[in-house]
């Protein structure tokens, strides 16, 4: 593997499209949260690129925090079990929380997180998801700010990984089948 871009079969969402959508949603969220002192929570690791770009595109001061959750192991299929790898450092009680997520697949990660934040006493909990795979949704999640809908293909880039790699690609893409060689489906 010589170069990230050499392993790509085709691009699904360009960096320009990502940037355009993030700026559009950030403008809307800035209006909606003006005066509310919002707390943006990114689900690590995948949402790190999205929260960086999104928060910089917002025009109001925001607070950031991070929670590391995992529903996938090293494969391409969700295990269905959410594990906290690292918790927040902020008390969310009484706060207006906006969860920033890279992708909603089965919906299990966010369904779990929304309930957990409400249980901790957040005043409101909303979601911005850059990508959604509607055909894969297993549980309902209320998304306030939508990004792009994509087909049921395993994608990497802009924070999304395959076996912890390719998060550093600057667009959303499908990998060449050869990259997955050896994985037991
Ligand atoms: C991925 C992705 C979402 C979640 C979506 O994270 O970043 O957080 O899975 O899947 P779901 O809707 O089926 O729950 P992953 O568990 O791979 O951890 P990562 O963000 O560290 O890559
Ligand atoms: Mn994730
Ligand atoms: Mg992952």
UniProtKB/TrEMBL annotation:
SUPFAM superfamilies, sorted: PRTase-like (SSF53271)
GO cellular component, one term: cytosol
Family: Belongs to the purine/pyrimidine phosphoribosyltransferase family.
Catalytically driven reaction(s): GMP + diphosphate = guanine + 5-phospho-alpha-D-ribose 1-diphosphate; IMP + diphosphate = hypoxanthine + 5-phospho-alpha-D-ribose 1-diphosphate
UniProt protein name: Hypoxanthine phosphoribosyltransferase
Pfam families in the record: Pribosyltran
Gene source species: Bifidobacterium biavatii DSM 23969
Compartmental location: Cytoplasm
Cofactor(s) demanded: Mg(2+)
Protein's UniProt keywords contain Protein biosynthesis: no
Main subcellular location of this protein, as a coarse class: cytoplasm
InterPro entries linked to this entry: HGPRT, Hxn_phspho_trans, PRTase-like, PRTase_dom
Pathway(s) per entry: Purine metabolism; IMP biosynthesis via salvage pathway; IMP from hypoxanthine: step 1/1; Purine metabolism; GMP biosynthesis via salvage pathway; GMP from guanine: step 1/1
The keyword Transcription regulation belongs to this UniProt entry's keyword annotation: no
């Amino acid at each position: 593997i010589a170069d990230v871009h050499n392993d790509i079969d085709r691009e699904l969402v360009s960096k320009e499209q990502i940037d355009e959508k993030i700026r559009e949603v950030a403008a809307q969220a800035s209006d909606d949260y003006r005066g509310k002192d919002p707390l943006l929570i990114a689900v690590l690791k995948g949402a790190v690129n999205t929260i960086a770009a999104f928060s910089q595109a917002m025009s109001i001061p925001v607070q950031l925090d991070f929670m590391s959750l995992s529903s996938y192991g090293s494969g391409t299929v969700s295990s269905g079990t959410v594990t906290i790898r690292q918790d927040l450092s902020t008390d969310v009680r009484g706060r207006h929380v906006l969860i920033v997520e890279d992708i909603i697949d089965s919906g299990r990660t966010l369904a779990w997180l929304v309930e957990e934040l409400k249980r901790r006493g957040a005043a409101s909990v909303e979601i911005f998801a850059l990508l959604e795979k509607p055909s894969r949704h297993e549980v309902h999640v209320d998304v306030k700010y939508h990004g792009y809908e994509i087909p049921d293909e395993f994608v990497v880039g802009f924070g999304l990984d395959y076996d912890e790699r390719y998060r550093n690609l600057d667009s959303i893409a499908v990998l060449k089948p050869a990259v997955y060689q050896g994985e037991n489906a």
